[in-house]
Structures are given as C-alpha cells and as structure tokens.
Amino acid sequence: MPNPFSSFFGRRARRQEAVIESDTRELRLSREEETVFDNNGSVETTERVTSIIEGGERITSHLQVVGQCTEAGCDRFLTHHSIRECFCGKILCPAHAGWDEQEKRFLCGECMRILRRRRRWQLLWGLLTAPFIERRNNDS
Ligand SMILES: [Zn+2]
Ligand SMILES: [Zn+2]
Predict the structure, then answer these.
(1) How many angstroms is it from 63 CA to the middle of ligand 1?
(2) Is residue 1 assigned to a domain?
C-alpha cells in the first residue's frame, strides 16, 4: 500500500479498464488519468481515453453501450443514439433497421418483408383489417 502522504508532491496515476463481452465480440475500453503535483502547489491532470469507432460512432465508455445488433455477421455495439428495436424483439443497428412510415417505427428485414406481403394482400383483397401486430403470428 502506498503511503498517501508521500505522494502529495509527485504523480498519481489511475487506470480503469472496462470490458464488455458478448457471445461474438469483446469491447475493451480504458481510461488513464495522471495527476502531477508540483511543489509550487499546482496540479495538472492529463487524461488518456481509448475509444473505438462503431459504425461511425465514437464509444469512449462502457456506459454508452446499451446493446448489440442481432443481425448475423454485424454484431455492432450500440448506444442510445444508434439502437433500434423491432417489435419482434430484435435489436438492430441503423444499417439493419428500416423505418416504416406507415407503422411509424423501425423494423427488421424479416418483419418488413412480412408487412409488405400483408399489405399487398390487403390491397388485393381488402380482407385483412386487424392491426399488423396481432396478426404477425398467423402469417404464412
Ligand atoms: Zn447491424
Ligand atoms: Zn422484426
């Protein structure tokens, strides 16, 4: 254990590392802080933060990460800004979620295909009038 009084003049370094592990990937972030005290009483702190770029978005802290894209082969880590959720429960990145103007929400590719097919039938037969969400399990 270092003596806390001995470091009053000098330097103190602190390093924090956070690792986020998913089934497919690992995200490692670190943050180093060095504080220099000189005998004139001035204190100077320098900070070094490692960051990664995920799909054009900078991630500097594990606290930013709230999910991961479930699309096969993507595995992008997502923040509050980039996370998209389809109502089937799939978590997606912006590249794998499509905005549907009629539903006013993001959809995964599969739900989008189902929805388009249903709309085509609706158009043809005018039979399917119940909301999409209640009928999605009956889709053939
Ligand atoms: Zn994705
Ligand atoms: Zn979906």
Answers:
(1) 20
(2) no
